[in-house]
Amino acid sequence: MDRRHFLALLAGLGGSACTTGQGLFNPCLPARLPESLANHDLVRQAFVGLRPDHIWDGHVHLLGLGDSHSGAWVSPRLQSLRHPLQYTQLRFYLNASCVEEARADLSFVARLLALKQVFPTGSRFMLLAFDYTYDESGRRRLDLSAFHTPDEWAARLHREYPEEFEWIASVHPYRADAIEALEQAHEAGARAVKWLPPTMGMNPGSARCDEFYTVLVRTGLPLLVHAGDEKAVHGSGRQEFGNPLLLRRPLEHGVKVIVAHCASLGQGRDLDKGADGPLQSNFSLFARLMNETRYEGSLFGELSAVIQRNRAGPVLKTLLETDAWHERLVNGSDYPLPGVIPLISLNKLIRQGLLAETAAELLNEVRRHNAILFDFMLKRSLRSGNKSFSPGIFESRRVYG
């Protein structure tokens, strides 16, 4: 593979081909920080003013290759050089999570547990299950699925490590057994349900989801739903299903909706003006929903991935400066993506005036040890003028608990 092709593959990860000065790959140093870092003021102040038992990272992917009894599955396309973009993406994701490929499932969990030890006692990582793609007929489509993380595995890890992990189920609403699976997830202690519509192939604005929404309301389970374009996970390729305005349907049913990434990528049709409405940025459509008073108690935005180089900029500046939204924003890391080195540029954030140059060297060093702590500290360090993210954003338990 030549350099030009390789850099194009890096862009396909969702970012730029430029590097950060740290190289391309996560060095996977021990997750526990050396004393020189652990005792630094910026590290110690990251958790000041926060209630430890309310610090829940609401977006931690649970990945595996199915080499244990986890039931995890990864598409053969991601493991074949015949599909170079997907193959390269998987290489970066495995490196970001410091996986030993000979024992991928168990080493992924072991690394998560090590990363968690740096966080205060009482905090939690919320592990995401991930369902297969299904088509309109309710048929499972392995050919359109990138990976699968069973609810059962995420639930089992919560049972085994209840002081470290909560979990979020993933149930495709087109499945014949969708309602049964949703009820089972609730009984097993799921805190929410995760959808990625552009990849998984569900239309959140479809009437066929109505029964699913009714059960979500009855059980009190929030819907953590990706909105905006999807670049990191291949699947059904239905980018139009990431339109934030499609979320009016679950909201009108009374579902608590948490919009992953605050719909911070791509464009969607202004469906309020009809099916052929003009294209608008997905973030502006998300902002429209956030500014409608009728959704104040049910619509939330989630900060995973908003610091990535292809999302940071006006979107991040708006999120920092819109104080009225802060009580409805929640934190999530989108792990392992903070460990994919090319995705986040501290230099770009410095140039945009959102990060102090004096913080960059320390943050880069923390990242070499602990990608989730890096993500947390970076968001806590961001400033736009005199505005920063309110502390309550990082106490995500208030939304999921």
Describe, in short, the structure shown.
The chain is of the alpha/beta class.
Describe the protein's architecture and organization.
This protein has 401 residues and is an alpha/beta fold. It has 16 helices and twelve strands. The model is unreliable at 1-9 and 11-20 (pLDDT under 50).
Q: Whole-number radius of gyration? A: 20 Å
How many strand segments?
12
Mean pLDDT, all residues: 94
Major sheet size, sense and barrel closure: 5 strands, parallel
Task: Name some characteristics of this structure.
401 residues, alpha/beta, five-stranded parallel β-sheet, three-stranded parallel β-sheet, 16 helices, 12 strands, disordered N terminus
Secondary structure elements and their pairing?
Layout: H1 3-12, H2 35-38, H3 41-45, E1 56-61, E2 73-74, H4 84-96, H5 104-116, E3 124-128, E4 147-148, H6 151-160, E5 165-168, H7 178-187, E6 193-195, H8 197-200, H9 210-219, E7 223-226, H10 248-253, E8 257-260, E9 267-269, E10 279-281, H11 282-290, E11 299-302, H12 314-321, E12 329-330, H13 346-351, H14 357-369, H15 371-381, H16 397-400
Parallel strand pairs: 1-3, 3-5, 6-7, 7-8, 8-11, 11-12
Antiparallel strand pairs: 2-4, 9-10
